[in-house]
Design brief:
Elements lengths: L1 H13 L4 H6 L11 H19 L10 H13 L6 H17 L3 H14 L4 H20 L13 E2 L5 E2 L8 E7 L4 H17 L4 E7 L4 H9 L8 E3 L7 H5 L7 E5 L5 E4 L6 H9 L3
Parallel strand pairs: 3-4, 4-5
Antiparallel strand pairs: 1-2, 3-6, 6-7
Helix pairs in contact: 1-3, 1-5, 3-4, 4-5, 5-6
Amino acid sequence: MINKFVSSLVLAAALLAPASLLAQTNLPVNHPALSPVVQDMQTIVKSVQAKLKAHAGKVTEADLAEDLASFDSLLAKHAGEKTDEVARVAYMKAMLYAQVLHDATKAAALTSQLKLDFKDTAFVTRLEKQAAAAAEAKSKQSELAAGKPFPDFSEKDLNGQPLSVGGLKGKVVLVDFWATWCGPCRGELPNVIAAYKKFHGQGFEIIGVSLDSDRAKLDDFLKKQDGMTWPQYFDGLGWQNKLAGKYGVQSIPFTVLVGPDGNIIGTDLRGEALEPAIVGALAKK
C-alpha cells in the first residue's frame, strides 16, 4: 500500500509537469529547485510515509488527522490559484483517501470537487483523459470473464513465427503479460517456470506478452532464464503495447488462462492459484 501511495505521488507530480519535475521528486524538501507548493506537499507526504512505515501500512483517518489538516491549510493558503501545482495538492489528498484510507466515497467527492475547482487546468484535462481510458480498459477487461471465448490475436513472436492462442488449439494456454522491469513479474516468474516445466508435457503452453521497450535487454534476460522457452510477443511500446491495449491491461503481472476449448478459465491467476487452475483445465482435455 505504501508503494501505491508513492506511485500516486509520482503520478500527481508527473501529470503535465515539466520533465524536470520528475527528476525533482527525490530532492530534499527544502531544495531550491522545488517550488514552495511542491516543498510543502513533499513535507506532508514524507510525514504520511513515516506514519505508514510506523504502522506497517495500516493507518486510520485519525492517525493522519494532522496531515489531512496540513493538506487543507496548504490548499487554503493558495486558494484562488487555479494552477496545475495546486491541483496536484488537491489530487494528492484525494489519493490519500483512495489508496491509503480506502474511503472510495470521500475520494470520489474530493476528485469531483477538484475537477470543478480546477476545470480549466491542463492537470484536470489529463486526469479526465485518464479516467476515460480507465473506463475503456474496464470495458475490455469485462470481455475476459470466465466462460467467455478468448478474443484471440494474430501476431508474430520474437523469432517472426505466427503467434496466437488459436494456433495452440486443444492446449491449455496461459497468456502472461509481464516485463523485465516489473519487480512483481520477476518475483512470480519462478512459479510460472515451474508450472511450465511440470505441465508442458501434458499440453500446457504459455504465450508471453512483454511490455518492455528495449529488445536487447529482453533478449538478454530471456537467455539467462532456465526454462523460460515459451514464445514472446514484443512490440517495444511499453505500456502502449498493442495487446495490452487490446485487453485493457493496466497493471502487470496479468494473466489469462484459456482452456482447450478456447474459453477463458480465469484471469490474474498466479502464486498458489495457478497450479490448481492448470490441473483442472488439463483434466478437461
